[in-house]
Amino acid sequence: MKTERWAAMATTPDSGQLLAMLLKVANAKKTIEIGVFTGYSLLLTALSIPDDGKIIAIDIDRHTHEMGLPVIKKAGVEHKINFIESQALPVLDKLLEDIRIKQPPGVVVVLPDRNKVNSKNYHERLMKLVKIDGVVVCDNVFRRGCVAMPEELSGKKNPSKGLLQSEELYKYILEASVYPREPKPLKELRDITATHPKAVMATAPDAGQLMDMLLRLVNAKKTIEIGVFTGYSLLLTALSIPDDGKITAIDVDRQAYEMGLPVIRKAGVEHKINFIEIFDFAFVDADKINYKNYHERLMKLLKMGGIVVYDNTLRGGTVAMPEELVAENLRENRWLTIELNNFLAADPRVQICLAPLGDGITICRRVC
């Protein structure tokens, strides 16, 4: 793929890692992919869905698809793929017509990644094709960061597909995607937390947005939270789970928790907090030295397919810095985080995804 002229169009491996988890969590079986290129995300989807799963893959360029086809065949998943060389809109319109005639079940997961001028048209059709609680994943929505750049700079070459390239881009993410949908109680609690001297410990709102989606995807009803602070992620969880859902929240500092408690009460979700049983979902944002200990215990408390999310797994980027460039007071937590990330990556009991949201969150799905 590296020799292909337009290799930057390919889905990045870290995006693919998150996509694989979404496919598994949603139990996806029938999917559409709009924009195949050489087939990295197509192969990933085919490997993630069950053997009798089906993918409708649409692209105007069969040549690039055929570059990756030998690898797809070698992986033994070609039978799941129906490749259609075409503009996408006519194919989607035909699928909508078939649904009106035959009423087949809805599509589960979709990956539009081609022809951005038609993204809105794709979205309108996909809202009719995707089942309730289905997932649509749109790739390349930051355009290498140019959406947050002054227009005179946006045309300059930027070879990196990494997302968090500037404070301006992070601000853009929050203002374009997170804040407009943040429930009022969460905004109120975020504002209160900002007055705390250790406000940096709070869960970042963009990480919270992903947590909310994960909680809903797994239909979480019983969860654990280790490390509550003022309760932003706790309130988010309580708002996401059903009215008879339960959360066990553990923290050594009740004082910080009580800062947010009036907001939790006002939101009418206090009754969901503090119940113990087997759990669907856990969120850990506590003392880093014990993350491995928490992980071992949570592997016994989480159901198969349950999720645990660890916060601060990038440590402000220090995990990728030479040690001599890291402030002395940050080095211990840096090494603890690196050890945790290596430990989780090697743990066969979990499927993992390290998402560069906030200060880094690692999502672990228990598989055995």
TrEMBL record:
Record carries keyword Ion transport: no
Pfam families: Methyltransf_3 (PF01596)
Gene Ontology process terms (BP): methylation
Gene symbol of the encoding locus: VvCHDp000552_2
Keywords: Methyltransferase, S-adenosyl-L-methionine, Transferase
Methyltransferase listed as a keyword: yes
Name listed for the protein in its UniProt record: Putative caffeoyl-CoA O-methyltransferase
GO molecular function: O-methyltransferase activity
Superkingdom of this protein's organism: Eukaryota
InterPro entries assigned: Cation-dep_OMT (IPR050362), SAM-dependent_MTases_sf (IPR029063), SAM_O-MeTrfase (IPR002935)
PANTHER family: CAFFEOYL-COA O-METHYLTRANSFERASE-LIKE, O-METHYLTRANSFERASE-RELATED
Family designation: Belongs to the class I-like SAM-binding methyltransferase superfamily. Cation-dependent O-methyltransferase family.
